[in-house]
Specification:
The chain is mainly β and about 350 residues long. The protein folds into 2 domains: about 5-130, OB fold (Dihydrolipoamide Acetyltransferase, E2P) (Beta Barrel); about 145-315, Lipocalin, CATH 2.40.128. It has helices at about 75-80, 170-175, 180, 195-200; strands spanning about 5-10, 30-45, 55-60, 65-70, 95-100, 105-115, 120, 145-150, 155-160, 205-210, 210-215, 220-225, 245-250, 255-260, 265, 270, 275-285, 290-300, 305-315. The strands form 3 sheets. A 9-stranded mixed barrel has the order 8-10-11-12-13-14-17-18-19. The longest helix has 9 residues, at about 170-175.
Length: about 350
């Protein structure tokens, strides 16, 4: 073993829990049962959206030099945690505890980093859960409008298992989709409203503009316009990943119906046709002021029943930032030759 730690790929003090890997973005790419401990010199730090990456030169037990990469969260999420492009400096030593990449023996997901100046950079728990605790705004607990932040798991909401409802055509489309290499996030796509609500670590702003409501997600700089003055979707509306939305109120709840989707995905592992239609209810919980977004969706070609899920958000003082996504970033993206 060379240096302080050399290179160890084993269980090194990380306690795993399946709960932390329920989110679809982590588990396909990293193995929760194989932890990684590396120490070496930082050779590059890609501080970008949708995924930042630190590259580390490591000397293995045989005295050979190896170049490792460890994927991190989006730049937008890292800035909330106090990380800047100056945090990981080229030439500095770093020790990383992480999770082994499934397709690259020299890749990992960054869990905790120990920097040369004594700083401890904790991005995920030993169970793989993302650590984020934004400032929570107190006071106004009744309005839909303002800045929101998705709660952490558990308690962030529910997701359906689409495989439980596939038609034969849906199962075939799912089999043809490989989220390991075809995740639209790597192409800087917002994917769908469901995906935009689901993004951890980034704020969402809801604004009242009279006859329309604007939902602005920092994730992919996605902006949705909810038309309150329309009863149906215009025949000439362009299809898109976020669709065309019309809304109305039921009491204090906002009901949003979205159609005119382009063919694609609902999440990175959840297929849809252009006939996919989504209904969302935005409700303020009177007991705690949380925003509860519940949704149902239909897609007769791919699903035999109505799908449903939810997201829960808290009000926050966290400011909105610019996402400025860079396509083809992240080692899942590098497995897809179409991204170059």
């Amino acid at each position: 073993m060379r240096g302080s730690f050399g290179l160890v790929c084993s269980a090194v003090g990380l306690v795993f829990s399946p709960l932390g890997f329920a989110h679809h973005g982590f588990a396909p790419h990293y193995d929760r049962d194989r932890s990684v401990l590396i120490e070496g010199t930082i050779t590059e730090f890609e501080f970008v959206n949708p995924h930042s990456i630190v590259h580390v030169e490591v000397t293995n037990d045989e005295g050979q030099t190896e170049l490792w990469w460890c994927e991190m969260q989006a730049r937008s999420q890292l800035r909330i945690k106090g990380v800047s492009e100056e945090t990981l400096k080229l030439g500095d030593r770093i020790r990383i505890e992480g999770f082994q990449a499934r397709r690259d023996p020299r890749g990992c997901e960054f869990g905790t980093g120990y920097l040369a100046d004594g700083t401890v950079l904790a991005l995920r728990t030993g169970a793989g859960q993302s650590l984020h605790a934004p400032p929570r705004q107190t006071g106004d607990t009744a309005s839909l409008f303002g800045m929101w932040f998705r709660k952490a798991f558990p308690g962030a909401g529910t997701d359906p298992n689409p495989a439980d409802f596939f038609t034969a055509a849906g199962a075939a489309a799912d089999a043809a989709n490989d989220p390991l290499v075809a995740n639209p996030v790597y192409r800087c796509s917002p994917v769908s409203p469901v995906r935009a609500w689901s993004q951890p670590g980034l704020p969402t702003e809801i604004r009242d503009e009279g006859d329309r409501i604007i939902i602005h997600h920092e994730f992919m700089d996605a902006t949705r316009v909810i038309h309150l003055n329309l009863n149906e979707h215009p025949a000439g509306a362009l299809r898109s990943e976020l669709g065309h939305s019309i809304g109305h109120y039921e009491g204090e709840d906002l009901i949003v119906h979205t159609a005119m989707f382009s063919e694609g995905l609902v999440r990175s592992d959840f297929v849809r046709t252009p006939d996919f239609e989504l209904t969302e209810r935005l409700h303020i919980n009177p007991d705690n002021g949380d925003l509860e977004v519940t949704w149902t969706a239909t897609d007769p070609e791919y699903y035999s029943e109505t799908l449903s899920g939810s997201r829960i958000l808290i009000r926050t003082t966290l400011p909105m930032g610019a996402y400025n996504c860079r396509p083809g970033t992240g080692h899942g993206a590098q497995m897809d030759p179409s991204l170059g």
